[in-house]
Design brief:
Chain lengths: 597, 89
């Protein structure tokens, strides 16, 4: 009955999802959107007309009151508003949307008001025109008279049904983290980029996702049958049976391939053709992903992003020692003797913690985040360190500190860790002699002075996402510059080489745990630069292990040396493509969308 | 049909309040009323149309009126413009 159509966007998590659309509106100013049955349309027009009539009445009353109190001049603007509501140039487009798009009046009014505000914004002289505030007023009063359709904003936990595909304007990290994976099979958003947290979570949950889909919200309605193609970045609305069949076949083939890769991955540690062992570990956000770590044959957890514990809780209450320790211990126990690197809270920046920071920062990415925030909130940090130490006996724990910019921070953290340990010892709580403490190298200053940091830590972990962001001065969540986010940039390569050299000289382990580790071409490069430990989303572990088994470190080193002599990211990419052309087909097929910047 | 050129003399030109007064006046006439500026034609009874003309002080508009009461309409509108929309400045 409904016309089929397809929309394109950026693929951020592979796979195919077939399901029913559920609209997810989280923005304050988004009006509820409902798709109407044909027979509802005349009634909706009528409803809109009655709402404008009573809105006009209300404005009239208001105008009279203002006129009496302040004089007729002041009432004139209200008269203008009332006239807009009677103007065919406003009413016409609204009614057209209701009829042609079969949408509810609230949505039609909001959309028409946006379009109108845009026309006025284009006018040269503000004095002459209605300003967008006036347009908002007009829209708001109509919406008020349309009545409250009820709070259409759902909570993730309340989503009912199965095979749900979330359709949203955007998904914040706190939204994404609460997606019920037993009910939601994929999502698509109108905004967002490949390196946003929602995208990272989609990959880690293994649910197909496409972002940056223009006109998504106006094209897909609640309950529409949709297919999300996370490989090619296409969203299909009401696809034909032929298309559904095509995707079903593809899904089966992908499942078969994945199964055999997994079996080989679980089989054991990957060793290169020249006998070097490469550790391929998993990045996780939630304790529930421990299952995936084992299932996909990861050698351990290279990064447990602990802040999602906080974000998933949803409210301001910071989890206490006991609840944190329980979660950490559970993860450690289930994965023992595999190493588990838990990164202390990396909040602030974009990760919903305005209430923690206390103010609206103009530049959150450069502001109070990571270890800085933790050191500025010592009780919170102390609580986490205590919880980690309490849980440590359950398995093989390593503590990683984010956003380190110099040795001082490392020393401060170590001092706090020692204090926390001393206190636990006093209380008679069993704690290990020592727990390895590492620094995340993601701030350029830390990369440049890695030789100073290495002696003071037990290990280091390169956070390529943020390192690229800070080194190239590109906000990875900003779609207007996402094309400039290039992990293959000579500056990044040189920094990685420098850090690798510092690690080697100080004889400290170094891992890479950004999304770059999951990209086969970058993996080869990093291997060649001296990295022997990688951590990525669990689902990408099998492919990388496969690649590690068919390359030699000698070959990778040669490629890395050649790459370091080049001047632009494009040259590096071209070199990598050339070098890998003859390698396993898996490399080409599994190029991670995260880093195709 | 009557066609006349009118020039806006008030400080703010055809801004929201002035436009509202014009529309209010025009609505009282049966005739079709059109205003044009640099080739753009708008309905004189549509506030949005008038506002989107973005006609400031000194702008010259062509008024076209057609209908039974066209004479009265043209006079009334011309007068409103010449009275500077009864604005104080």
């Amino acid at each position: 009955m409904k016309r089929g159509l397809s929309l394109t966007g950026i693929p951020v998590s592979p796979g195919v999802a077939v399901g029913r659309a559920v609209l997810w509106l989280s923005r304050e100013d988004a009006a509820p959107h409902r798709t109407l049955e044909p027979e509802e349309i005349p009634g909706e027009i009528e409803r809109f007309r009655r709402a404008t009539e009573s809105a006009v009445e209300e404005i009239g009353t208001l105008a009279t009151q203002v006129s009496e109190r302040l004089g007729p001049e002041y009432a004139a603007i209200f008269q203008a508003h009332a006239m807009v509501l009677k103007d065919r140039a406003f009413v016409g487009p609204v009614e057209k949307r209701i009829v042609q798009d079969a949408v509810n009046a609230e949505w039609a009014v909001t959309a028409a008001a946006h379009a109108l505000a845009a026309k006025f914004r284009d006018l040269p002289d503000e004095d002459l025109a209605l300003r967008s505030a006036d347009v908002d007023d007009v829209a708001r009063i109509v919406l008020k008279h349309l009545g409250d359709e009820g709070d259409s904003r759902l909570r993730m936990e309340d989503l009912a049904g199965a095979a749900i595909v979330l359709i949203a304007d955007e998904l914040t990290p706190s939204d994404a983290v609460r997606i019920p994976r037993d009910r939601v099979v994929g999502f698509a958003t109108e905004r967002g980029g490949a390196t946003s947290h929602a995208a990272i979570l989609a990959r880690s949950f293994g649910i197909p996702a496409v972002v940056g889909v223009a006109r998504l919200l106006e094209s897909v309605g609640d309950d529409d049958r949709v297919i999300v193609d996370g490989r090619d970045g296409v969203v299909w609305r009401e696809p034909s049976e032929e298309i559904v069949a095509l995707f079903r076949d593809r899904r089966e083939e992908e499942a078969r391939r994945e199964k055999s890769l997994k079996e080989r991955s679980v089989g054991g540690v990957a060793t290169t053709t020249d006998g070097v062992e490469v550790a391929v570990c998993a990045n996780i956000e939630l304790a529930s992903e421990v299952v995936d770590v084992v299932e996909y044959g990861a050698d351990g957890v290279g990064l447990f992003r602990s802040e999602f514990l906080y974000l998933a809780a949803g409210d301001l209450a910071f989890p206490d020692v006991a609840s944190q320790a329980a979660i950490y211990a559970d993860v450690l126990r289930r994965l023992a003797p595999r190493p588990v690197v838990i990164r202390t809270y990396d909040l602030g920046g974009k990760k919903g913690a305005r209430q923690l920071v206390g103010t609206d920062e103009p530049n959150p990415v450069l502001g109070l985040r990571g270890v800085r925030l933790c050191l500025a909130r010592p009780e919170m940090f102390r609580t986490q360190l205590t919880a980690l130490l309490t849980a440590a006996p359950a398995g093989n724990l390593r503590i990683l500190v984010p956003m380190v910019s110099g040795v001082e921070e490392v020393r401060q953290v170590r001092a706090m860790l020692n204090e926390a340990r001393a206190e636990l010892v006093d209380q008679g709580v069993p704690v290990p002699e020592s727990v390895p403490l590492g620094a995340m190298i993601e701030v350029p200053s830390a990369a440049v002075t890695a030789d100073l940091i290495a002696p003071e830590v037990d290990f280091m972990a390169l956070g390529t996402n943020d390192l690229v962001q800070y080194t190239l001065a590109v906000d990875r969540a900003n779609e207007t510059v996402s094309h400039l986010f290039r992990p293959e940039h000579p500056a990044v390569l040189r920094l990685v080489a420098r850090v690798a050299e510092a690690a080697r000289a100080a004889r400290k382990p170094l891992s890479v745990c950004g999304e770059a580790a999951a990209d086969p071409q970058l993996f080869l490069l990093l291997l060649g630069l001296g990295i022997r430990e990688f951590s990525m989303g669990p689902r990408t572990v099998p492919v990388i292990k496969e690649i590690a088994r068919v390359v030699s470190v000698a070959e990778a080193a040669r490629v890395a040396r050649a790459a370091l002599s080049l001047s632009t990211p494009d040259e590096v990419v071209a070199l990598l493509a050339l070098e890998l052309r003859d390698l396993v087909p898996a490399v080409r097929r599994h190029r991670s969308p995260a880093v195709s910047a | 049909m009557i066609e006349e050129t009118i020039v806006l003399r008030n400080r703010l030109g055809l801004h929201a309040r002035a436009a509202a007064k014009l529309v209010h006046l025009a609505a009282g006439f049966e005739s079709r009323i059109t205003l044009s500026r640099e080739g753009d034609d708008v309905d004189g009874k549509s506030i949005l149309g008038l506002l989107l003309l973005a006609a400031g002080k000194g702008a010259s508009l062509v008024l076209r009126v057609e209908g039974a009461d066209e004479g009265a309409a043209v006079s009334a509108i011309k007068e409103l413009v010449e009275r500077r929309f009864d604005e104080s400045e």
